[in-house]
Structure formats: structure tokens, C-alpha cells
Here is the input.
Amino acid sequence: MLSPSHDKRVVREALRDDRMVMTKTSSVDLVTQTDQKVEKLIIQSVKEKFPTHRFIGEESVAAGEACDLTDSPTWIIDPIDGTTNFVHGFPFVAVSIGFSVNKQMEFGVVYSCLEDKMFTARRGKGAFCNGNLLQVSEQEDIRQSIIATEFGSSRDPEAVNNIFSSLRSILCIPVHGVRSAGSAAINMCLVASGCVEAYYEIGIHVWDVAASSLIVSEAGGVLMDVEGGAVDLMSRRIVAANRRTIAERIIKEISSFSPPRDDTPPQQ
Ligand code: LIP
Here is the structure.
């Protein structure tokens, strides 16, 4: 199996050397050779031990593989979450690996490569960072909270308007601050760590949040859809918060929209 130090070396060395930037769905949806290399390394090493398991990997889906979450044991992989950060040397880049059985997350690992922080969670067994137990913030007042969100990789004017409308409403609650780490997985781990009270985004993918969704819930947090109700990891929408009342307050301010689901094949 790959070791975290091996992953760290691959990503850190590439941070200096990999300047081969390609684009996927738009000119701001970036991918590098390192994304592809790390995903191949992870899938190969898991397959050696578990040949019957299934995979949903960001770069495999980009290359045309199906994005179906079934009841079978499935590894959900984002080889580099924060690819734009990686390309620019902005220091928040993570490898995210979640494992699901019967469509339920069983464990999740997010390795924040430059911070050297290993976030882990197993269902029912708590969430940890470098072995230390994680607990979400106890803050009850949204006006004394920091909220994380992202601007995503769509520049569709309607989506951008919705993003800014939500941001404006949330800032004006008012909250103490709004932050963007540039990696959904790291934003979620910040919620689990108690540094920020909530994170929301429309436009993420299942591989961005599969592992960290378990890390948040095992740290005592809640996950919801941006219109309320249960989160659906294929819907590309998520609110993660330290408590339900904070999540519900944010939901009131979000101008929601529905990007194409991850499990809908792209139109030809
Ligand atoms: C990215 C996220 C980022 C989000 C983008 C994208 P990538 O993942 O982590 O926070 O705003 O929509 O999904 O492409 O770096 O793996």
C-alpha cells in the first residue's frame, strides 16, 4: 500500500516541477499530470489488495468512466483536492480518499500535504487529526462564526450571481468572517477541527467531499442539502456545520441552484 509519506513526497516534489496544466470542463477547471499520476498510484495499490472493489476517481471520471455509487465497496478518490492551489503554489492541497459500502461512508482520509495533517474518520469511531480527537466548534451564534465557502469552477453568469448573492446575505447577517481554503476537503476538515463553524458550496463533486463528510459527522457536525433535508453526495451541493441551527440559518441565505448531478452522464 502507499504510505502517507510517499504521497507527500509525490505531491511536494510535483509542486515544484509540474507545470503541465491542462483544462477539463472549462478554462478554470484545471488538471495536472500529478492529479492523474496520484490517482493511478492509489487505484493500483488498492486493487492489489481488493481486486473486486469499485472506484470513483476524479480523473477516471474525467476520462469517461461512470460515476455510479452502488452498494458495492467503493473507493471515492480525489488525488489532489485544490488543483488550482497546487498549480499556483497556494499552500492548501489535499489527497482525499473515502470508502463506502451500501452507499454509506465507512471511513475517510484527507491528507493536507503541505500542512502535513492527516485527517481520518471511521464510522462510529470518531474523527482525528494526526491522531488527536477532533470536535466541532461549540459556537451557537452565527454572528460570532466564520463561514467557509468557495467560488467554484463555473463562470456561468447565473451561477456566479447566485454565489455572490448568497455570499452577500451571509456576510450581512453579519458573521465574523468568510474564508476560502481553495479545497473543499480542507474546508470540511476546518469545520471538523472547530476553526470554522460551517462550510457550504454548490458545484462540488462527490470526490471532493466523500471522505471529509464522514470526518465532519464523526467530529459531531451536521451535513445538509443547501435547501434543507439530507445531503445527497451526488447532488453537488452541501452544507456542513457544527450544529443544525447554524446550518439552517445559512440555508435561509443561500440562493440555491442545481448543477448537473455527478451520476448523470454528460450530454454528448
Ligand atoms: C475543487 C474544490 C474547490 C471547489 C471546486 C473544485 P479540485 O476540487 O475542492 O474547493 O470550489 O469546485 O471541486 O478540482 O481541486 O479537485
In short: The two ends are 37 Å apart (CA to CA). The helical segments are 4-17, 33-49, 58-62, 83-88, 157-171, 184-193, 206-218, 244-253. The mean pLDDT is 93. The chain has two domains: 4-133, 142-253.
